[in-house]
Amino acid sequence: MSDTISSGQFSLAGVSAAAVTAFREGRLASSEQEFEKAIQYFTEALAFDRIPAHFRARVFEYRGLCFWLLGEFRAAEKDYRESLTTSNNIDQMARARVRLGELADFRGEYEAAAELYQQALQEGNATENLLVIGRARRGLGILDRRQGNTERALSQLTQALAIFRQGGETREQGRVLTSLGRTRQARGEYQQALLAHREAYVILESVNDRWRVAQAVNDIGECHQALYDVEKAYEYHQRALQLATNAGARLLIPEIKRNLGVDLVESGQYEQGLVYLQAALKGTREHGNREHEALTLYHLARAYLHHGADSLAVQLVLALTHVAELLNADRYRALAAFVHGELLYHQGRKADALNELNLAMLAAQTAVDRGILWKLHAAMSHVTDNEQIAAVHLNIAAEFIRQTAEPLQDERLRQTFLNAPPVMAVLQAANVNPSFF
Question: pTM above the 0.70 mark?
Answer without folding.
Answer: yes
